[in-house]
Design goal:
Helix content: 25-40%
Number of strands: 9
Number of domains: 1
Protein name: Aminoglycoside 6'-N-acetyltransferase I
Pfam families: Acetyltransf_7
Strand content: 35-45%
CATH architecture: 3-Layer(aba) Sandwich
Distance between the termini: 37 Å
Keywords: Acyltransferase, Transferase
InterPro entries: Acyl_CoA_acyltransferase, GNAT_dom, YpeA/RimI_acetyltransf
Organism: Chitinophaga ginsengisegetis
Length: 157
């Protein structure tokens, strides 16, 4: 019996391919915000039998890479795919010469904060009122209003 990880591949999305907005909107509820960083980013998709089931977006800023979006289809969550995506992003960042990898998440994103810290990311900043300032509608997760962005970084040296 093969594991889900063995049945999947990760590749860069080609410019002529359809953007997996259904996945990206799981992590960022604003198409406007997603579209603001996509032109400057690379999108990577995780496929199982040619079906896209997860994705992440990398934005390069000088010698630093930021994961702007990372999402797994709900039917496949809790199976280690988020960890695989984070490891893939770190590997690509390191191979490209980046010294650190950053990711931001909401103060209400408890599972994500747990996952990121388990993968070696450390909290380095809090962007107060980021989500209440940049998003027109309130966002709630886990019964908590998402107000602040928690910024985490992973050293790649």
């Amino acid at each position: 019996m093969t594991s889900l990880q063995e049945e999947t591949t990760i590749r860069k999305l080609a410019t002529n391919e359809k953007m997996p907005y259904d996945l990206l909107l799981l992590a960022d509820p604003s198409v406007t915000m997603i579209n603001s960083y996509l032109p400057f980013s690379d999108v990577y998709v995780l496929e199982k039998k040619k079906q896209v089931i997860a994705a992440y977006v990398l934005l390069k800023d000088n010698d630093e890479l930021e994961i702007k979006n990372i999402a797994v289809n709900p039917a496949y969550q809790g199976k280690g795919l988020g960890k695989i995506l984070l490891q893939d992003a770190a590997q690509r960042a390191r191979a490209g010469g980046s010294k650190k990898l950053c990711i931001g998440t909401g103060n209400s994103s408890i599972a994500q904060l747990y996952l990121y810290q388990r993968q070696g990311f450390e909290i380095t900043a809090i962007r107060k009122n980021y989500f209440t300032t940049h998003y027109p509608e309130p966002i709630y997760e886990n019964g908590i209003q998402c107000r602040h962005m928690i910024v985490l970084e992973k050293s790649l040296c």
